[in-house]
Amino acid sequence: MGIPQKKINFREKVAADQGWVLTFDDVICLPGYTDFLPEQCKIGTDLGPFHFESPICTGAMDTVTEESMAIAIAREGGLGVLHRNCSYDRQLEMVKKVKRARSFIIEDVATVNPDMTIREVYAKMKEKGISGFPVINQQLKVVGIVTSRDIPFDPDVEGTIDTVMTKNPVCLPANVSREEGLKTLYKIRKEKIPLVDSDGVLVGLITKKDLKPNYPNSSNDDKGRLRVGLGCSPFLPKNLHDLETLKNAAAHTDIMMTDVAEFYKKADMEAAKEMMNLLDSKFVLGNIGTYEAAEALLTYNFPEEKFIGIKVGMGSGSICTTTIQTGVGAPTLFATAEVKDAIQD
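The chain above was modelled as a monomer; its predicted structure follows.
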C-alpha cells in the first residue's frame, strides 16, 4: 500500500545535488502508511562488529560525556564517548570506571595488603570509590577481604587491616559461571567474591551488583562489561608516559573516535593510520562533511579490520562554535547525505 516512490539517492532528497546545504531545521519528514505497532519496532543498530540496542552515541565533549554519562548511556543500550580534554591519566581513569561499573568479572582488581593501616585502606576506598578490597599477601594469594562495614566508626583508629578483615574468605575458580556466582553470593550473604587460580592467586573479582541483570538492553562486551568509546587526537603523544597510558586506555576501550573538526587533511590521515596500527581498538574517523572527503577515507589504506565507521557533520551542534568562528562547516543532514552516497557508490 502507499504511493510508489522514485528511487533517488540521499543527496537528491535533500537537494544537495542542486547546491543546497540544509540542516535538520530546514526539512520535515512526510507521514506515510504504517503496518506495524510501536512496540514492534526494533531500533537496534550495528557499528562494525558491535551491536547496540539503542542507536544513541554521545558527543566526546567535556560538557557532555565523562564516566557517569558513559555508564548511563551504555546501560540503556547506546555508547558513551568520553572526551579527551584532560590528561591521559584521567582518560584512562574514566575508561576503567566505565568498564568496572557493570562487569561480570572484574580483572583489574584493586587490592590492599594485610599490613596496611585502617586509615590507609579507608582513604583508598574514598579515593577509588570502592566499598571493599580483597586482601593479598606478597605471593598475591587471597588472605582476606575487607569492606566498608569492617572499618571502625572512627577510621583514624590505630591498627592494621588484618585485625578487622574477614580472614580466609570464600573464593571461587576463575571460570565460574554467572549462575554459580549468584548462587554462592546468596548463600554466603556477601557482596564480593574473589576469584583465584589453582594456587590461590587472585585473578579476578565478582560482585553482586555486576551479576544482577538490571539493564537487559545494556551494551556489554564479551566479559559483561559496559562498552565505551574514547575521543582522541589523530596524533600519538610524544611523551613516553602519555603514550603508554594511551595504549592502556585503548586496550580497555571498544571504539576510539578521532575528535577533530575537519579530518580531511593529509597530516591527520597519515597520523591516524599510524595510531590505528599501534593501538588495540576499533576506530571511527572524522569529522568530515563532503562526498569527496568520504571517498578519500574509503580509499585510503587504513587498517581494514580496525576502520569501522565515519563521523560526519561539522559545526552544526547546538553549542558548537566552529562554523561561527571559521565560516566553514557542513550541517549534519547535508554531511550524512554526502557520506552515505559515497559509501553506497
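The first strand starts at residue 45 and ends at 47.
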